[in-house]
Design a protein that fits this description.
Layout: H1 3-59, H2 63-89, H3 92-96
């Protein structure tokens, strides 16, 4: 190799260093973007799991238990209505006149 060739190649070293630094910066930015995408995928998977659980809780109803709860609620409502009716027809004057 001649002295001129060596000098020319040595002159290119700063350009290669700059290109290498630019590549490292691009790789770092790409890694950061990939980490954000991965975190977003994880968050969406977690959200999907949670929503599937909520949906399952709504759609997977035990009909026997639901009917029992409904009947119990209806009975409690009827008893409350009867107590209210009895109390509303009773007044202090009715008690004092007896």
């Amino acid at each position: 190799m001649t002295q001129a060739q060596q000098t020319a190649l040595e002159g290119l070293i700063p350009q290669f260093d700059a290109a290498y630094s630019g590549i490292n910066d691009a790789v770092a930015q790409n890694g950061g973007a990939q980490n954000r995408v991965s975190a977003t995928q994880t968050a969406l998977t977690d959200r999907q799991t949670a929503l599937s659980g909520v949906l399952s809780g709504i759609t997977d109803v035990d009909m026997g238990a639901a009917v029992s709860k409904l009947q119990l609620s209806q009975t409690a409502l009827q008893a409350s209505a009867q107590v209210f009716s009895t109390l509303s027809s009773t007044s202090l004057l009715n008690i004092l006149t007896r």
